[in-house]
Structures are given as structure tokens and as C-alpha cells.
Amino acid sequence: MLNYTLHDPLWFLALALLPLSIWLRGRRRVPVLLVPFAAAWHRPSLASASRWPTGLAVTGLVLLVAALARPQRVEDKREVRSEGYDIVLAIDLSSSMLAEDYERGGDRINRLQAIKPIIQAFIEKRPSDRIGIVLFSGRAYTMAPLTTDHAWLAAQLERVKIGLIEDGTAIGDGLGVALTRLEQAKRDAGGKRQGAFVILLTDGANNRGALAPMQAAELAKSRGIPIYAIGAGKDGIVPFPVFDDKGNKVGYRRMMSDLDEPALREVAEFTGGKLFRAFDTDAAESAFKAIDRAQKIEFQAKSYLLTTELFPWLAVPALALLLAAALLSRSAASAARATA
Fold it and tell me: CA spacing 20 to 30 A to 201: which of 90, 148, 311, 329?
């Protein structure tokens, strides 16, 4: 941000003396020598009195006063050294996420539809972080590697839908892939990663995959990476949509939620994280806000002012004009003496 200021503005009071000095100079008495019959031998001088020296001198003095006021260009510089977190979101895309036990505006929505905008808001609140997305169901895949391009990440998240991966709930594999993405980031410090964590979003119990959730938790703890788990959906019997061959919803059937809350709590607490239950959209939003508060770095911005002196741009022309005025005045005086 650029600003212009005067370091010594009181110098401009000196400009008030210029009109006074010009007026006094005009009223100055000049001695006159009376010569008899001077008109008979006087010839008009070819060198008429010029006002150029006076004009140049006045302009030079104005510029000189302005230079003495020390005009400055001030630029506000802000240096922010920020080091954000590395975050991987491990999102469950098993078919049970289709259960419509959430509401928005009085309408039923499934668990993924309820969680996606909350994830988007979480990402927007962490502009300094590198965030990646791992999707898992029967298998686990990396959808987005760690990136600070959150606009691109939001576009990728918008494409997420249930059915992209074969069905199942491989929680351990999802955590394993998330930890692999963090390992590839190569931001270790003293054997443990600094500023990294995993958010696990699931609504079920581990029933697929090669890696058990606690095995993944042990790996995460050895690397100093906490896991925050969010258990989506309500307990008990929930409405589950029924689709025809063309994918149109034709009704509902009742399904029992199978969230393994004790296992998720054990994984989270073992790694230094925490388990949150998201029974509705408000609870899900509160869970992400709690994680945001718990894993937040406050950066300090270093601000300083860069000042550039501008008086040379005025002082140099001022001195040049004063010199020119002196030379012209001296030349005029010499011409007058020669004529006399």
C-alpha cells in the first residue's frame, strides 16, 4: 500500500514570505540621477528589462521550500511467514452413507449430502493449510493430493458421490492411504511430523481391507499424527432409499446403523485425537469447528514501513532554476552597464 506524506510540512509557511519580499522589492526606492538635456542624447536600450530572472527565482524558491518539507513515499510492507498444517480428509463412500437421516430445509438428505458443504466450509477457513482427500469404501484411493489450491480441491470434492468405489468399509486402508500421503509430503522434524493430522469421516464399522484400524492408529501415533474421527448418522433404525434399475428413488426401507463407536474412539484417543458424533448437520458442523479450533496455528505478521525520500526530485530543479535566475540577472546587469 502506497502513501505520500511530508516529514516537515511547516516549511511551507516560508512561502508566505515570498509575496511580501516581492512587494517590498517593488516598493524599494531607487536613486535617480537627473542629467540636463538627457533626452537629446538618450537612445533606447536594445536590452529591455526582463522579468525572467524574477520568475525563475520565485519558482526555484517554491520548489526549494517544497524540498525542505521532505516529501516521502511510504510503502506499508507486510511479511507473513506462515507454516500451515498438512491435513488429509478420509471420507467414507460406502453405500450406508446413502441413509437419509439428516434434514435440510425440511427435506431429507443423505449423510454425504449433509457433510459435503460442512467440509467445504472447513477447507475455506484454512487457507494456509495443504489439504488432501482420500476416499474409501471397499478399497481406498487418493482423490486429491495435498494442495493449497483450495478452489481446485472444492471442485474435486463437488464430484464426490457414492458408488465410485466398490462397496464395503475399509477404514484401516483409508487411514493407511492418508498416512502415506502425509509421509510423501516430507515435512518430518525430529522423527515426528509437525503440523499434520487426519480427519476420518465414516458411518460404519471396518469390514474390508488389509489394514485394521488400530494398526493404522499405531502407525499414526509413531509418526505423531493425530486422527480426528467423525461418526456420521443417527443410532438405531434409519431410512434408507430404494432405487430402481434406472437409478430413480422409488421408496425407502429401514436399516440399522452399524457405526462402531468404541473402535473409532479408541483409534482417535490412541493417536491424541478425538471422536465426534454427528447426529445432525448442526452436530457435524460443531465437530469440524472443534477440530478447527484444536488444530490451529496463529501466525504473526511482521509489518514495517519502507520510506523513500522524494526531495531530490524537487531540490535539483530548484537549484537549477536559482542558478539560471542568477546568470540571467547578471547578464542583464552586464548588458545595462555596457549600454550606459
Answer: 148
Q: Is residue 209 located within the same domain as residue 323?
A: no
Looking at the structure, do residues 49 and 177 belong to the same domain, yes or no? no
Shared-domain flag, residues 44 and 176: no
Dist. CA 264–CA 274, nearest whole Å:
9
How many angstroms separate the Cα of 116 from the Cα of each of 98, 177, 211? 13, 21, 26
pLDDT of residue 61 exceeding 70, the answer is: yes
Same domain (yes/no): 177, 204: yes
At 66, the pLDDT band (50, 70, 90 cuts) reads confident
- For 112-128, the pLDDT digits (tens) are 999 899 899 899 888 88
Query: Residues 163-191, buried b or exposed e (16+ Cβ, 10 A)?
Result: eebeebbbbbbbbbbbbebbeeeebeeee
Half-sphere exposure of 336 (CA within 13 A, CB side): 9
Q: How far apart are CA 20 and CA 27, in angstroms?
A: 11
pLDDT at 137: 94
Domain residue limits at 129: 86-294
Q: Is residue 284 part of a domain?
A: yes
Q: Name the grid cell of 184.
A: 510423501
* pLDDT for the residue numbered 60: 79
Number of neighbouring beta carbons within 10 Å of residue 47: 12
**Residue 156 corresponds to which cell in the numbers above?**
474435486
d(CA 93, CA 135): 7
Closest to 283 (Cα-Cα) out of 212, 243, 230: 230
**φ, ψ for residue 336, nearest 5 deg:** -65, -40
Confirm whether 322 is domain-assigned. yes
- In angstroms, the first-to-last Cα distance of the chain is 62
Strands (E), the chain: 2-6, 71-80, 86-92, 102-104, 107-109, 130-136, 140-147, 188-189, 192-193, 196-202, 227-232, 237-243, 249-256, 275-278, 301-309
Domain tally, the chain: 2
Q: Do 46 and 184 fall into the same domain?
A: no
Q: The pTM is what?
A: 0.62
pLDDT at position 144 is 93
pLDDT at position 279, please? 83
Q: Residue 323: pLDDT band by 50, 70, 90 thresholds?
A: confident
